[in-house]
Amino acid sequence: RTGAARDDEFRVRLEGAASAEERRPRFSLAHKKLIKFAFTVSLVICFSVKANRMPNRAALSMSAPADSAPDGPMFDFSVVRELRKREGLTLGDVSMRSGVSVPVLSRLERNQSVAEIETLFKLSRVFGMNAADLLALAESRGAHHAGETRHKSGGFEFREVRYGNALCLYGRAKKGSTLSRPEIHGDDYEICWVLQGRLRIRLPHEVHDLAAGRAIQFDAILEHTYEALADCEIVIFHMRKGKRF
Q1: Residue 97's CB: how many other CB atoms inside 10 A?
Q2: Are 211 and 194 in contact (CB under 8 A)?
Q3: CA nearest 171: which of 145, 149, 203?
Q4: What confidence tens digit (pLDDT) does each residue in 130-142 have?
Q5: Which of the 8 DSSP states describes residue 238?
Q6: Of 102, 121, 146, 208, which has the fewest beta carbons less than 10 angstroms from its beta carbon?
Q7: How many beta carbons lie within 10 A of that of residue 234, not counting itself?
Q8: Cα angle vertex 37, ends 35, 43, to 5°?
């Protein structure tokens, strides 16, 4: 091409670009700020809607309890060592009396294994208790809660708390009240403690009058009768006898 033709083509392109620039909408500074503000608002609304549709993880973590870690073993058979030392026995002594091998006893005392029912039965006889008592001692929990119950019998009003090996009763009675059939006749020891008033206790071959502050212990399996000689308050304990076997 000649130089004149190239100049004409370049001039046409420039004119076309200028025409396109003139057709393009022009915005003032105020318009630009308004557009930017509208765009920002639209973004905020968009993210807000998205956030509302998504579950609140913090709320979920609070409402849905996480799997708690285990509190530890259900039973602690190291109590066998305590029982053995209390009786002044060696591992060999317990093994010979129970038929349980020394390695098994050693693992139990270190709480590295769980005792089988037969093993519990054999060991409990060595320590003068039953298998259920030994299993109860091996429970990891050291304290046991209990709620009171109430009952009336022979003019006596009792509030009581019962456990597997003991029963405690707090009683109140008016003068002249008698209790000829105590609620428990078992192979237990019974202790009666007079807090206020006076109480007469009849045993098969003896009679005891107790004033406030006095107590008496006897075999609960014996027939006995309580008689309030004055308005009184008493505490009665029933305790299981040890060395039952």
Answers
A1: 14
A2: yes
A3: 149
A4: 888 888 888 765 6
A5: E
A6: 146
A7: 24
A8: 105
